[in-house]
Amino acid sequence: MKRNIAIGIQSFSKLRENNCFYIDKTHFIKEWWERGDETTLITRPRRFGKTLLLDTVKSFFSLEYADRGDLFEGLSIWREEKYKDIQGTYPVISISFANIKEKKFSAAQYKICSALTSIYSDYEYILSSGVLKEKEVLQFKSVSTDMPLEVATESLNYLAKYLSRYYGKKPIILLDEYDTPMQEAWINGYWNDISYLFRGLFNSTFKTNQWIERGLLTGITCVSKESMFSDVNNLQVVTVTTPLYTDCFGFTEEEVFSSMDEYNLSDKDKVKSWYDGFIFGGRKDIYNPWSILKYLSLVEFDTYWADTSSNSFASDLIRQSNSELKIQLETLLQKKSIVEKIDEQIVFNRLYQIPNAILSLFVASGYFNVLSYDKSKKQYIISLTNYEVQIMMESLISEWFHSPTLVSISREFISALFEGRTARMNAMLNKISLETFSFFDMSGKEPERFYHGFVLGLIVDLKGRYTIESNRESGFGRYDVMLIPINKNDPGIIIEFKSISYDDGEKDLLDTVNAALQQIEDKHYVTALVARGLTRERLFTYGFAFKGKEVLIAGGPAYRSCPAAGASPSSAGSSPAGA
């Protein structure tokens, strides 16, 4: 009989009691317990079973589940006799910050204090047990939704001491989604306040706490020790590249294919293309569990995991980032890998200042995947994770240009691009820049952010018709793009972007755009495309010259020389040439 696939249940006991679909991950308990690390932080992408696994750990160790060994019958942990003896024998403090997503620090502080107060209320019976001293009773009662920060940060330390004394056994402390409030704090501008609170809470709970047996935290990101864990030096951090617990989160290929057999589903190659691709600690072929469950339930392919979040945070990070990330994304969207230096520890309040910090965040979030790495050099080979993620990224980029105004303008611009109508292109790009310069760069000082966003838009809009190759010459302010048609009857396009360089003797954008066109000649790009079987008559070459928000486009058919001659630049707020 097929097991019922219950979507969204994160209670281990509920899944087991109702014989719902469940893939056994209880071997994690043995691996974690036998390592002996006092405090462990594990990071995995969202919807990868972190909450369910913490609930499984709670169900196994907690005194609340004493004599509930039936929940583990038939599972891997129950084949270990010595583990049967410790099931249900520990006090467990379990807390989640998953729902703390507030726009103001005062509201976040209130919800954190509410969560701590709720934990205390579960153990109110200790107040009448006689094990607490008079001052400890006062401390216990001081824990409330409006308690001062110094009371909140010490609360779990005190509770661990009380439980240890009451039960004669140190408690296990579980903290789920520890980093959710931190991301919200960075987005909404109260990072300093939240980091002060959490530094105190984590230090008191996981470092200076002699009453803790083990600590286990989960989240999406590894927030830097300097930001949050500076005082917690006994922390074992397990990121997506750490070779620990590699098959404990997500589904392995064997688990996915076995599940498909159970439900008589055979489209394994397509499932692999859509939902495989995650690599944890060097272990390949880890599948997205949320999307697999939805697919098994509905038997249709869709962007299930990508749709569990609005993805607006990712979109904002990409479009407002520097040109580097957009160039990296251009390469990744063309199913190529990149080699970059990254630091897996995230510094939220310096995401835009630290090189490749956003790339690191996307790796932790599961959008980008680490194929291999050299940790000593912090050098990583990175790719897009799978087809589902690619669709999500393409959708984010499409939305940048799909305002009602821009849809028609973008189409007309591409049409003019394919026909060599530079006057019309200048007019259209002026309108596009008016709509999008501030969108890509809030300061309005980096036109590069705009034109790299523009190239990403081309890659997405022309998918299936063109292969797009790009290259940047660092230090020269130049960047070229080749649009190579899949159908040889379509035109080939070569674009050279160039920012004005007064050091090179360029007096105005006319000099710059001619230098860009000369670059195309010097690099023999036309010859390269002709060698691929394209005819010169079907090739167009363009120079795009930038100075602030001013843009000048020149060029045309590659079979004739196309220097710019007296054209006026397009500029946000000025009249374009040829309009």
Explain how this protein is built.
By secondary structure, the chain is an alpha/beta fold. The chain has four domains: about 10-240, Rossmann fold (3-Layer(aba) Sandwich), CATH 3.40.50; about 250-305, no CATH class; about 310-395, no CATH class; about 400-570, no CATH class. A six-stranded mixed beta sheet has the order 14-15-16-17-18-19, sandwiched between helices. Strands 2-3-4-1-6 form a five-stranded parallel beta sheet. The longest helix has 19 residues, at about 150-165.
Number of helices: 22
Q: Give the averaged pLDDT, no decimals.
A: 87
| Beta-strand content | 15-25%
Helix content: 40-55%
CATH architecture designation of the largest domain: 3-Layer(aba) Sandwich
Derived structural class: alpha/beta
User: What is the number of independent domains?
Assistant: 4
The coarse overall form would be elongated
What name does the CATH topology of the largest domain carry?
A: Rossmann fold
Evaluate the radius of gyration. Answer: 28 Å
Number of strands: 19
